[in-house]
Amino acid sequence: MNDDRVLRQGLDELMLECSEEQLEQLHTYYERMVEVNKVMNLTAITEYEEVCVKHWLDSLCLVKALLPKELNNPLRVIDVGTGAGFPGVPLKIFFPQWKITLLDSLAKRINFLEQLTKELGLSDVTCVHGRAEELGLKPEYREQYDLCVSRAVTRMASLTELCLPLVAVNGAMIAYKSADSDKEIDEAVKAVQVMGGVIENREKFIVPCSDYGRSLVVVRKVRPTDRKYPRGGGKPMKAPVI
Question: What is the pTM of this model?
Fold first, then answer.
């Protein structure tokens, strides 16, 4: 039996209510993830309380970077480099009105997420196997999202080139970074400007029920991204705009 005291304490800190249905969805999520993790590398974190803090609560800390009126809107959201579904799936569970696209470059992860989201009964979730540098050039994805989120371990300048072309003007990308990432964020200022954005906020905090420092970097899209971005051939990673 899972002990949900830490989870509930963290949700209280984030001022998020959790219904029995949502709690059951999280339990199912955990069970399926741990089960599949035995045959496929989804996460190094498998102890229940750690998953609650380092995956779910961390993902849900997005509430610190958005206004309540934004959170309550039926946002079009894409999660770039979603991996085992973080932060996209926890966000969908708590904000069911959002239309979520989960993007990952590994087909096995996408297959897992397709099965998982069906089992959890989540609607308006699209699981896409592909790379952001390719999707950002396709009309059906380019500048189609109100919000792009990513917990991917990628330099901020590179991540900006991958994410911001997917965001509609007046929308935003939010990058999950460590608390000591100021230098990396400063180095990304040029990339942010070139991609049509401005750094609107750096929200620093400690993840609930932990001592883990986190920064959420909010980049607002203020004009369309030049058609030559994102660059292909892995250039956003190999030669970031800095």
Answer: 0.96
